[in-house]
UniProtKB/TrEMBL annotation:
One cellular component (GO) term of this entry: plasma membrane
GO biological process: protein secretion
Family that this chain belongs to: Belongs to the FliQ/MopD/SpaQ family.
InterPro entries: Bac_export_3 (IPR002191)
Protein name: Flagellar biosynthetic protein FliQ
Amino acid sequence: MTDPSVALMLHEALYVTARLAAPPLLASLATGLVISIIQAVTQINEPSLVFLPKVVAIAGVLVMMGGYSVTLLTAFSRSIFSAMIHVG
């Protein structure tokens, strides 16, 4: 395996990681923003109020995106294993 192919594999790994992490992080960000706006409007400053909606939002996104995540990880794993075969 040459250095450019290792760099390409590393780039692909980071890209897959970003694609897997983005939906839950964006759901958490959006939920936190909405709850913060509601807290600012109602002047309720309870830090634990954000926790449960964020957990529910992240769990919902993970359930909805589960099939996509498995498909993406399977394709990436197959490409890594096929590259390992070519090395040996």
